[in-house]
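PROTEIN DATA CARD
Card holder: Phosphoribosylglycinamide formyltransferase
Chain length: 212
Origin: Streptomyces sannanensis
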Amino acid sequence: MASPPSSARPARIVVLVSGSGTNLQALLDAIAADPDGFGARIVAVGADRDDITGLERATRAGLPTFVCKVTDYGSRAEWDAALAEAVSAYEPDLVVSAGFMKIVGQEFLARFGGRTVNTHPALLPSFPGAHGVRDALAYGAKVTGCTVHFVDDGVDTGPIIAQGVVEVRDEDDEAALHERIKEVERTLLVEVVGRLARDGYRIEGRKVHVGE
Ligand code: GAR
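Structure generated from the sequence above:
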């Protein structure tokens, strides 16, 4: 699959969040620091819940927001279709799942597969799922980190774009380790999104080629 965004205009990005949105903020800051050079702009921010700092960050940045709550729909498939519809209204070139704590389904992937990027707080394929930091710590891993990958129909199984490594310290608890991972993660996500937008990419099986 090849999806280089057009070089004639900045890539349009929809970001999905569920929580504090510090990864979103890192993207906002990087784009604000170099609006012409970054190669992308965020056109909307979506969430699966209200009252989260991530949405406040988007509003502060003057961006439109939308919320798709699973509980507002009769089934998971209906929710997924509604999310796909809400995202498609903003015609994104890339969708960035930045701490979005829901698994997207068939309808979403039919529209945005191959251009949805997720960031995960572990070195995939180790410790997928909702508790990547806790699981690595409980396992006794000595290094962990973060993975930016394309989303496929599995749980954190899609083709890997980039990873960052973080050492686990003896004194770490989940919060401390997650905070150090997020420092690396924010930088990595900004770098990856910028490169995908500026340089284009190809996905061949499990391999992602950026700018080739
Ligand atoms: C990030 O560490 C992200 O990797 C993680 O949630 C955090 C969101 O932080 N996502 C997952 O665990 C998904 N399985 P943020 O809201 O401050 O950007």
